[in-house]
Amino acid sequence: MTDQNSPALRVALAYHQAWTGRNLDEAMAYVADDVVCDAPAGRIEGADAYRALMEPFVQMLISAETVAAFGDEEQAIVVYDTTTTLVSSGPAAECVTVRDGRIAYSRFIFDRLPFQLARSTAS
Amino acid sequence: MTDQNSPALRVALAYHQAWTGRNLDEAMAYVADDVVCDAPAGRIEGADAYRALMEPFVQMLISAETVAAFGDEEQAIVVYDTTTTLVSSGPAAECVTVRDGRIAYSRFIFDRLPFQLARSTAS
């Protein structure tokens, strides 16, 4: 599950541990300046926009649990579940491509629906 | 990416190729009778309920493209993107646990929101 022989997985897990530990500065050290992220709401380009995506999520994060993690030389997948102030279970998958020790591309998959429903109930 | 030394990945990919080829009978041969699937809408138990979840999706499937796939002895993850008659890009991740050559547990992650929006626009 956590094959430390995968350079991409090492980076993906270091990133994951940093942001789920609510240390976004440390997490961003593993993200390339010109990162491209295909997220549910659309494509995000550049580290600043990526950080702006993550920041509100990290602020409402209560806990995260890794479900599975695999990788090879260039690519890694981390599947995890999150508990936030908004939604009790929000599973997600991040499938990343790593170049020069940083995440250059990420495909980020999660269900936006429970978050949207929780927000519309709250408002 | 497609490490054929992983028994779980072999099953996950055979299942994936069958259902994305719209052969649900063949796909279900890789799914345990007592399968448990944690899907976005909640837990599904048993092969009949699982098939009922997949059937309408397979019916509207136009194409599927594998993004990444990894596995080990027991667990595998397949990340893919789908084009359906409803949504042009619906990426998903299936993280499965395989026992006795069949999928015993699946955590199925995708964004329901574009499907819901497309349905409410259509109706």
Largest sheet of chain A: 6 strands, mixed
CATH third-tier fold name of chain A = Nuclear Transport Factor 2, Chain: A
| Principal-axis shape of chain A | globular
Helix content of chain A: 25-40%
Through-space gap between termini of chain A: 40 Å
What series of H and E elements makes up the topology of chain A?
Answer: HHEEHEEEEH
CATH class of chain A: Alpha Beta
| Tally of domains of chain A | 1
Binned strand content of chain A: 35-45%
Report strand order across the widest sheet of chain A.
2-1-6-5-4-3
Query: Which spans of chain A of ≥5 residues are poorly predicted at pLDDT below 50?
Result: none
Second-tier CATH architecture of chain A: Roll
The most extensive interface between chains reads:
A-B, 23 and 23 residues
The quaternary state of the protein chains shown equals: homodimer
Structural class of chain A: alpha+beta
Mean pLDDT across every amino acid position of chain A:
95
State the total count of DSSP E strands of chain A.
Answer: 6
Structure write-up:
The structure is a homodimer of 123-residue chains. Chain A is α+β, with helices and mostly antiparallel strands and 123 residues long. Chain A has a single domain (7-122), classed as Nuclear Transport Factor 2, Chain: A. Chain A has helices at 7-20, 24-28, 47-60, 113-122; strands at residues 31-39, 42-45, 61-71, 75-84, 92-99, 102-110. The first copy, chain A, has a 6-stranded mixed beta sheet with strand order 2-1-6-5-4-3, with helices on one face. In chain A, a hairpin with a 3-residue loop joins strand 3 (61-71) and strand 4. Chain A is globular, with a radius of gyration of 14 Å. The model of chain A has no long low-confidence stretch (mean pLDDT 95). The A-B interface holds A 1, 3, 38, 40, 67-68, 70-72, 75, 77, 79, 91-93, 95, 107, 109-113, 116 and B 1, 3, 38, 40, 67-68, 70-72, 75, 77, 79, 91-93, 95, 107, 109-113, 116. Chains A, B: This is Nuclear transport factor 2 family protein. Chains A, B: InterPro entries: NTF2-like_dom_sf (IPR032710), SnoaL-like (IPR037401).
